[in-house]
């Protein structure tokens, strides 16, 4: 392959790897506690929630591999048609703590990644409270 063909490919690779940023430190957040509490079954993530909510803006633009290193593997993950993905981290115990780890309506942190693999949305999902029927 000639140098004239190699240079554009190298430039594109460098450009794509430069997109996004490493996750800055979240003051007061103990990532080790978070990572140890898989599926939030030990209810340890609750103690980190206020700090996370306070500094959630720092998550925007962070690369997926940095999120993985900081928070650990997501409890659940979805991929969309347009190369976007969504990470779910449970915030409280629920049916996801059963051996089958079925999807639960328990509160969770939702991180949405855009096509460049960086965080574009940070949400805290709340379970839907349904009114009793037959009243």
Automatic annotation (TrEMBL):
How far does the signal peptide extend, from start to end residue? 1-22
Q: Which PROSITE patterns match?
A: PROKAR_LIPOPROTEIN
Which keywords belong to this entry? Answer: Signal
Superkingdom, natural source = Bacteria
User: What protein name applies here?
Assistant: Lipoprotein
């Amino acid at each position: 392959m000639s140098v004239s063909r190699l240079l554009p490919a190298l430039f594109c690779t460098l450009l794509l790897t430069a997109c996004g940023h490493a996750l800055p430190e979240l003051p007061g957040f103990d990532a080790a506690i978070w990572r140890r509490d898989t599926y939030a079954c030990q209810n340890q993530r609750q103690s980190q929630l206020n700090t996370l909510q306070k500094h959630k803006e720092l998550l925007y633009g962070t690369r997926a591999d940095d999120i993985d290193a900081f928070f650990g593997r997501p409890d659940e993950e979805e991929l969309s048609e347009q190369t976007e993905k969504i990470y779910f981290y449970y915030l409280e115990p629920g049916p996801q703590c059963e051996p089958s780890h079925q999807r639960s309506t328990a509160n969770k942190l939702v991180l949405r990644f855009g096509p460049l693999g960086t965080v574009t949305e940070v949400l805290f999902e709340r379970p839907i409270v349904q009114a009793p029927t037959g009243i």
